């Protein structure tokens, strides 16, 4: 076997998330970046690729060129999959074209601008049989995997209540007017879609709830805020949640929560126990019990379920962070892809799927609709 | 001057909150307990008083007897005020009778069962000119006072977002069927009123939001839960909030949040800064800023506003807790009452008032109405 | 029964620790302050007593007067015990005189200026059979009691390592030159004795180690610092410890640890488990295990030993702090004294004893001697 | 420019630290692994290399073979530097041979078994002019860099006190008898040298103190423990420290601190302020001040010095951990090496040097000597 070869779409110089994807893909030594269409400008794409030590001929002017050119290369040489790290409006087209040309896809979230696109991708994945991974990174955290496993095995009993929050403050002022690249497309419906903070971080919160509880959010009541002057898209949201089993909860997300950095946190309450996890302190899982003292789980520590034990790389007490969780998504995708390329199968792929992507887009649409109706209850479907 | 003499209504043996009130009233050495109608059973009242080292003749069979008998005693000997620590349905009658007979009142929350009663008490307080203190204890915490002062002085800028939670787990199982005294009246609408957890702890959350922000909650959307089998009253609630200035937020409270002890916490986000306070870790106030690192304030520590600096008793680093915050409410009430008895006045009484009590009851009614209407937006008024 | 009557020596206006003792003694409603010799100035003593609502005739000019006068009163009226809260040099004489005149004693720490005095008091207590309580308050904390119980029952296995620290910063600058009352006597060997920070807080650290582990510190190597300009007494210390069972450890204390408030913390490591407690976050006991995840105990929470369960007053999650721990020492002393006055006995008094006081003074002398010998190993005896 | 080519010595299958080095070197995309002598068994070396997707011909039987063979390759193809990740006794020989054959070196710590070897390497580095990096990873943490910068710029004033601890529990039981590979060489003086936990983690603590304070430890008093049955080398240590400027402190390290994972923490107290950092919670730097509230710095957050600001990769609130800090050491070494290869120079290399390695070995020897003399004060030199 050899390392998997990755082609990247987006992620040119100055991109935050492109750099994250490259580092994450590199950590476990299973993937090498071999080509890219890093920017919509051919010149910037080449400059970006050069800084990444790529040969000039594999720094393409656009994704169409890349997909077609790479397809012509020999199997051992061409990219084995593409990673799409562009702004939201540029996910669908390259993902579709990659799949149609036989390339497995790793794609950033939210998956597409519209439900129709999302459903089309889901169908295409099914039809082509190609692998598709969605980079919700938080399910890559060992303690999130432990949380999911504890709920799945019934340790907490029936789930009754969920609280999730994702609080950032970086848009508390009008950063989009200062030339900040990320802010400028985040506030633009053409590039972000109908959700602002909702699409960016609300979808992470939604995904985390459903990943950990194994339950779907059935309906929601959303009160979105647009606090930044002149903003068309939401920069804040408060939601009531009802899950398919009767559990209730709240979601709160914000990009105007002044001073917050990346405060994603979740609490899940069951009949017998409960759990609490904070992204900014990711190496602890706090669990509380009817009749026992609080237990705090740690990556690599005692009494973990296999799902969590296998998700950390280094001994307990050596903190893993955001990049490692992201890397786990890539590692699990790569493991799956290598297996497929070897003609093997794996029991249960452990990374977010195209269907998770569909859920995320439907969640965005439900929240926007609810908000338009003064936070009326709205089903996700 | 001498110590103030307190008569207590409720709080007999086995009562949690009666004991809290007595300890809180004792800490600062300004108040002595001189009499009580501790139970609806004359026998239990006497036994309770005896355990408190009270003379038998001042352990009364009921509050009516106490009020009338004490009134007959000489001014220097009779009780100076009454403290009412009964279940909710027994707040109104003794409070009313005490006021009508010239006794100032300290009363537990929620103040009354109905809005009508609350409004009647408010009018009576105005009419008699007697002091009335409501024991919302959390505003007694030095860091809560610092939080309020920081918002009031504009340190955070305009408030945009609030998150408040009050999570307990002690009713996660059917404790009311085990003979647990508190649980049995908390689930009984006759004694609790129309709110369960809503009245018990939701009102604390409501009060804390309004105390810290100085803003009223204008409307709310409430989704209440009744997870305990057979419960008529709510044991859980999730709410969307809109404040009078346009700020938005969430409230979540629960008594079925398994494993939680007394997890009251609040976050307030303004344009320039934000703050976070946790009741279970009460001696820190976390503040975050647009352009400065997080600052953590502590009681007795550096850079506090006077309101906070004067609210702690011991040097910084010597933790004060629940009882001390409660004691501050009593201390400030006692300071006010002593001033009045001396013919003096004080600039601004610093303890919750009868009007705060009215707000609390109106909040309960608004939340219950919203819940009946599937979490429709409902004004508090 | 009636409340116990306490006479206080020291603790006049402006005293930090006198106020702490009074509040602590008041909380549980078992003790009332009836008289005092609050200051070496008769005038200040009277003014202090008046502010405490005491009758003038029981505000004495000095402790000798108080002890003799109270002795003349009828048993039901005179003070039942004395509480000594003066600077260190004024502990021995009043304690001795009180015992010799039949009054039980509560005394602040360090117990005396010299080992000889300490041993004399110990002998006197034995000879008179009177109760003597030393106000090391930290053993009053529920989580400290849980820690002691866990070690005693063998939960941690044999103890191998101890780390204790007591860090304050209030003397980082020359506060003794600013008229700060406490600082001025703390730096004065005539009033403090041969130890500075050593006597003030080092003794707390020593007591905590021995209380929790149930083991004596056999020898120590002490490197004391005098960082404040012109200070004769230590304001900082670093020590190596060897316990009687072969365990090893460190102690570090300081009053020049800039910015620290009252950071007393201890870690104890045994063969099977370990524990960690922080005075500034007193309501958690962190325990770590060979083969289980961390467990966090809380006052009033699950799985506590009786010693800890009985030491908290309010339900779990309602934080108790410094005053409550202090109050527990008074409560347990009062419970014992009431039993004795009723002709009963109690199984095991749960408050620090005169022998703990002797240990503390011997510890001070050993540390000073070690320091003089360039941190040579020195036995405590 | 192209990626730097790394050859690795040690780090075969099952090695913890070899894997850490590879991941750390990969993260920033500046280094690729091209060859290795991964094991003293040629067979295991090949198997290890294969699993890393290396061509068989560049998986060497031993380091001598690797150095000689690679030297024969063309400059663009052969390794650019070697990374030595073997047990301690196998650092010196390959480092020396690499340098003598013109290869820059990255070497794990402690650098050598003896002071003589360390000094010889230091001379060889000077003589050859080749780069040499020592992988003390903790100085790679952004908050450690901030700490160092704050001290250097005088923010804390003169340093008076230091407390450092490095607590692990993985050797609390006799793991070396269970076939645990790491434990077996750690307890073996032939492979570990004269220090056990002292060499493994004590050196990290020593390095951290000197890195942050910019001060050398002048002398120490060490009380080492050998708690594991039959252990020849220390598995625990408690030390008094005196720094060159008169500051004092303690160090405590252990591998028998049951339940501890990787609890490295440091506190540094200056005349004006102090700081506290915990490796297990690496993304916060707590600072305390004479006259201001605590400030908490975070990677990517407000008010960082350049040294810290440039050391984090992702926005604030996205936690970086152990691997990222390790990667920063590699990145800074690689940046330096690329500059040198390009004929450039860099102002101040920001990674631990061969001289830091000499300090570490001298520290080990001083501590062992002190311990032999019953913790007598011993100079490091």
Automatic annotation (TrEMBL), chains A, B, C, D:
It holds the Pfam family GFO_IDH_MocA_C3. InterPro entries: Gfo/Idh/MocA-like_OxRdtase_N, Gfo/Idh/MocA_oxidoreduct, GFO_IDH_MocA-like_dom, NAD(P)-bd_dom_sf. SUPFAM superfamilies: Glyceraldehyde-3-phosphate dehydrogenase-like, C-terminal domain (SSF55347), NAD(P)-binding Rossmann-fold domains (SSF51735). GO terms for molecular function: nucleotide binding. Transmembrane segments: none annotated. Residues 4-134 form the Gfo/Idh/MocA-like oxidoreductase N-terminal domain. It comes from the Bacteria. Residues 144-276 form the GFO/IDH/MocA-like oxidoreductase domain. PANTHER family: CONSERVED EXPRESSED OXIDOREDUCTASE (EUROFUNG), OXIDOREDUCTASE. This is Gfo/Idh/MocA family oxidoreductase.
């Amino acid at each position: 076997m050899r390392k998997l070869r990755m082609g990247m779409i987006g992620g040119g110089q100055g991109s935050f998330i492109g750099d994250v994807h490259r580092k994450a893909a590199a950590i476990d030594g299973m993937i090498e970046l071999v080509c890219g269409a890093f920017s919509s400008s051919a010149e910037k794409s080449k400059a970006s690729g050069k800084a990444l030590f790529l040969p000039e001929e594999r720094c393409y002017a656009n994704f169409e060129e890349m997909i077609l050119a790479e397809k012509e290369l020999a199997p051992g040489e061409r990219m084995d999959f593409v990673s799409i790290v562009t702004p939201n409006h540029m996910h669908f087209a390259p993902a579709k074209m990659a799949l149609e040309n036989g390339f497995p896809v790793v794609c950033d979230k939210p998956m597409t601008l519209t439900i129709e696109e999302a459903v089309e991708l889901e169908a295409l994945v099914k039809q082509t049989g190609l692998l598709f991974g969605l980079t919700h990174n938080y399910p890559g955290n060992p303690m999130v995997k432990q949380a999911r496993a504890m709920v799945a095995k019934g340790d907490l009993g029936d789930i009754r209540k969920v609280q999730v929050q994702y609080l950032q403050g970086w848009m508390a002022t009008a950063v989009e007017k200062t030339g900040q690249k990320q802010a400028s497309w985040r506030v633009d419906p053409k590039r972000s879609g109908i959700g602002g903070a909702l699409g960016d971080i609300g979808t992470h919160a939604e995904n985390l709830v459903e990943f950990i509880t194994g339950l779907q959010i059935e309906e929601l009541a959303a009160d979105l805020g647009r606090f930044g002057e002149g903003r068309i898209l939401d920069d804040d949201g408060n939601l009531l949640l009802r899950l398919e089993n009767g559990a209730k909860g709240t979601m709160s997300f914000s990009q105007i929560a002044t001073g917050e950095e990346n405060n994603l946190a979740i609490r899940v309450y069951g009949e017998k126990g409960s759990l609490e996890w904070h992204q900014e302190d990711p190496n602890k899982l706090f669990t509380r019990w009817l009749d026992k003292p609080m237990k705090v789980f740690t990556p690599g520590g005692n009494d973990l379920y296999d799902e969590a034990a296998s998700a950390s790389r280094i001994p307990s007490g050596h903190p893993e962070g955001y990049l490692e969780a992201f890397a786990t998504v890539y590692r699990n995708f790569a493991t799956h892809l290598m297996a497929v390329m070897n003609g093997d199968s794996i029991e249960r792929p452990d990374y977010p799927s195209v269907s998770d992507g569909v859920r995320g887009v439907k969640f965005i649409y439900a929240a926007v609709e609810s908000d338009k109706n003064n936070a009326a209850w709205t089903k996700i479907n």
